[in-house]
Amino acid sequence: MTLTDILAKHAIENNDLLNDLQLVLDEIQTASSENQIPKSRFDEVISQRNELREEVRELQLELEGYKRKLKGFEDLNVEALQEELEGLRVQVQESRRKRWEEYERFFEVPEDDPRYMKMLRIRDDFRFGTDTEPLSPDDINHNLQTIKPYLKAGYFEKEQTYDSARPIQGIKPCKRTDLTEVFKAFGG
Questions:
Q1: Residue 186: which region, alpha, beta or left (left: phi > 0; alpha: psi -120 to 50)?
Q2: Which terminal residue of the chain, N or C, has fewer Cβ atoms less than 10 Å from its own Cβ?
Q3: CA 101: distance to chain centroid?
Q4: Cβ contacts of residue 156 below 8 Å, gap of 6+?
Q5: What is the 3-state secondary structure (H, E, C) of the chain?
Q6: Residue 142, CB half-sphere, CA atoms under 13 Å: how many?
Q7: Residue 14 pLDDT greater than 80, yes or no
Q8: Are 140 and 100 in contact (CB under 8 A)?
Q9: Is the pLDDT of residue 117 over 90?
């Protein structure tokens, strides 16, 4: 049924009015067809919207979980913990400094001591402070790491008579023997 049929049924037969109405209807139809979104694009946008809503719900749940976790940390005083940590760092550095001072005494041997030459040979591996410029914490840590293999090999013990300059890690240097004893042992 067309517009003219509907108007004729109600006894409206004004042609100018019919033409005007037909123009308006044509414009509405043209405008609506231009502004319509294809169904596939509409479905795609709706699908994306639903996915984003689900993601927002998940993030809100995650946020609520974090808020519950944070409630347990409200009573913590961060500044007090940082001060305590700094105090512990100072104690560790002081302990390392004292330990190095004990090991540093190994290098203080008189020239007539048999260990004097051994100490001169390895002295370059270590860093030493002066009265005006003490060792930094990094220097102390370096020295403590460097001295480990020497301590493990027993390099600083008084009763040793070998003259090895640098111990090999994991191998204890042997004592020096006279070659005449070796020849005697092998029948020479």
A1: alpha
A2: N
A3: 34
A4: 106, 115, 150
A5: CCHHHHHHHCCCCCHHHHHHHHHHHHHHHHHHHHCCCCHHHHHHHHHHHHHHHHHHHHHHHHHHHHHHHHHCCCCCCHHHHHHHHHHHHHHHHHHHHHHHHHHHHHHCCCCCCCCHHHHHHHHHHCCCCCCCCCCCHHHHHHHHHHHHHHHHCCCCCCCCCCCCCCCCCCCCCCCCCCHHHHHHHCCC
A6: 11
A7: no
A8: yes
A9: no
Both tokens assigned to 171: 């191998």
- Averaged pLDDT for residues 85-111: 88
| Cα 130 → chain centroid | 37
Backbone angles phi, psi at 66, to 5 degrees: -65, -40
Dist CA 137 CA 150 (whole Å): 21
118 neighbors 138 (Cβ within 8 angstroms): no
Determine the residue type at 84: E
CA atoms in the 13 A half-sphere facing the CB of 137: 7
Q: What is the pLDDT of residues 149-172, one digit of tens each?
A: 888 877 777 644 444 555 555 555
